[in-house]
Amino acid sequence: MAKSAASVEFRRVTKRYGAVTAVQDVSFTIEPGTLVTLLGPSGCGKTTTLRMIAGLEMATEGQILIGGRDVTQLSAADRDVSMVFQSYALFPHMTVLENVAYGPSVSGVSKAEAQKMAREKMALVGLKGYDDRLPSELSGGQQQRVAVARALVLEPQVLLFDEPLSNLDAKLRRRVREDIRDLQRSLNLTVAYVTHDQQEALAVSDRVIVMANAVVA
């Protein structure tokens, strides 16, 4: 089971790249165990916001708290957060089991224990028995599940999704978004989810935060 879910709080957060303001004076709270979607058009600042939760981008101004702890200056490695990228970012030369076990392996867990943790999460997302498959042998939906299992294996306090369904066809998109929602509820996960698709946002979310032109609308 996941650790106790954590809240995420932005307090007047701004992100600038030189003269360009990507996110401006944004404040919001994601309650523990809820799925909140950042919805908006391309370039509105939603992915930058997600990356600031992950610690992949640093805030120029303001404060970011996870579980009440100020993480504004902490690196990605020092935050208890996992991210599922739009491209899935799977290692093509590694099997499904090796991909999912990668996180625990590099954090010093023994190979046997890492594989045990990986198999538990693979079973959760419907990939039991897929240990030896390579990513190239999987469908888009299965690759997505590998990416989710790999993010879950470290049992993060917060799970982030960046446009996770954009590479899937319409039928598969519906099924995978239902899977993500079921998983979030059954594990009581705190999830921040980014999409430009209003229908998708309404289908998966407890709450929707609309962004436009670098601000919360």
How would you explain this protein's 3D organization?
With 217 residues, the chain is α/β, with parallel strands linked by helices. The chain has 6 helices and 10 strands; from the N terminus they run E-E-E-H-E-E-E-H-H-H-E-H-E-H-E-E. A 6-stranded mixed sheet has the order 6-7-8-3-9-10, with helices on both faces. A hairpin with a 2-residue loop joins strand 1 and strand 2.
> Helical element count?
6
Mean pLDDT: 91
| Strand segment count | 10
Q: In angstroms, what separates the terminal alpha carbons? A: 35 Å
Quick overview of this protein structure:
The protein is α/β, with parallel strands linked by helices.
Considering the chains and any ligands shown, give keywords for the structure.
alpha/beta, 6 helices, globular
